[in-house]
């Protein structure tokens, strides 16, 4: 079934100079197969921006050696605030808007089977094809080893599930969180004060009890765009991030001195 593959987590593009990332997670609750996809990249000025899509599998089962094909509309997100004043007071309503950027395609090679001579066969890259409206460029996506060496499963005491997490407030944004061994990487994709999309990153160790994560939160700029492979990256610490998990699919997100915001695993897509 395509719904259980590819491996979920962080990916990078082999063709760029680094600094960008891609989050993929296949749904095990969607019988026909679906992938939640988020791109952590940069606009033409070099500022961080994120785009998201839900990709569904082609109805055609691939032949031997042929890839699974997923496709869907890539969206740019923003939020806006509407203020309503009545006799009883003022209410601020925050709403999210999506702007369709075009159709994105992933070509996922069939998972290689182990053999006696190759018990752990290398996984070939996933082909990402940007919407033609954004230039239609192709990239080769590979799993991102957080320690710079090799992708590893989380340590046994790790409580949180790897993957996408949704917070209880639209303005607080969402999270892609993955632990490899005890080293974890968080991508916080959210919104600026003006409502435009922005993302931040943090890397650090899972707490010894497996239930927490604390690290500086950085904004990255100067990375690759749709037409430019990227140059010198700039990191600016914007805050600190603290995650606490009460079970594998429930936790809280705290940024700096702000109040903790509830979050849950985002798996139904």
Written overview of the protein:
This protein has 269 residues and is an all-beta fold. 0% of the residues lie in helices and 54% in strands. It contains no helices and 16 strands. It has strands spanning 9-13, 21-26, 34-42, 48-57, 68-86, 89-108, 126-129, 138-143, 163-167, 174-180, 183-191, 197-205, 212-221, 234-247, 250-255, 261-265. The strands form two sheets. The protein has an eight-stranded antiparallel barrel with strand order 1-2-3-4-5-6-7-8. Strand 1 (9-13) and strand 2 form a beta hairpin. It is globular, with a radius of gyration of 19 Å. The two termini are 16 Å apart. The mean pLDDT is 89.
Short description:
The chain is mainly β and 269 residues long. 0% of the residues lie in helices and 54% in strands.
Q: C-alpha Rg, in Å? A: 19 Å
* Uncertain stretches of 5 or more adjacent residues: none
Question: What assembly state would you assign to the polypeptide chains in this entry?
Answer: single chain
Please state the overall shape, judged from the principal axes of the Cα atoms.
globular
Total beta strands:
16
User: Proportion of β residues?
Assistant: over 45%
Distance between the termini: 16 Å
Average pLDDT value?
89
Q: Report the sheet with the most strands, covering strand number, pairing sense and barrel closure.
A: 8 strands, antiparallel, barrel
* N-to-C series of helices and strands: EEEEEEEEEEEEEEEE
SS-derived structural category: mainly beta
Helix content range: under 10%
Task: For the largest sheet, list the strands in their spatial order.
Answer: 1-2-3-4-5-6-7-8
């Amino acid at each position: 079934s395509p719904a259980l593959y590819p491996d979920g987590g962080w990916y990078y593009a082999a063709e760029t100079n680094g600094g960008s990332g891609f989050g993929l997670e296949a749904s095990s609750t969607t019988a026909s197969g679906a992938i939640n996809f988020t791109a952590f990249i940069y606009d033409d000025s070099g500022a961080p921006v994120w785009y998201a899509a839900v990709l569904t599998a082609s109805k055609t089962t691939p032949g031997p050696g042929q890839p699974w094909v997923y496709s869907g509309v890539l969206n740019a997100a923003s939020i806006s605030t509407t203020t309503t004043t009545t006799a009883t007071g003022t209410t601020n309503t925050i709403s999210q808007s999506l702007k369709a950027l075009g159709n994105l395609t992933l070509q996922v090679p069939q998972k290689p089977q182990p053999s006696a001579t190759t018990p752990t066969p290398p996984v070939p890259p996933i082909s990402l094809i940007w919407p033609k409206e954004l230039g239609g460029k192709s990239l080769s996506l590979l799993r991102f080893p957080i320690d710079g060496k090799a992708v590893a499963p989380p340590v046994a005491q790790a409580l949180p599930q790897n993957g996408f997490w949704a917070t209880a407030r639209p303005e607080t944004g969402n999270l892609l969180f993955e632990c490899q061994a005890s080293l974890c990487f968080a991508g916080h994709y959210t919104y600026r004060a003006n409502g435009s999309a922005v993302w931040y990153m943090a890397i650090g160790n899972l707490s010894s009890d497996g239930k927490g994560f604390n690290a500086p939160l950085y904004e990255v700029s100067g990375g690759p765009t749709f037409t430019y492979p990227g140059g010198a990256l700039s990191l600016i610490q914007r805050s600190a991030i603290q995650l606490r998990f009460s079970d594998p699919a429930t936790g809280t997100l705290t940024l700096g001195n702000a109040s903790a915001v509830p979050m849950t695993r985002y798996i139904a897509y």
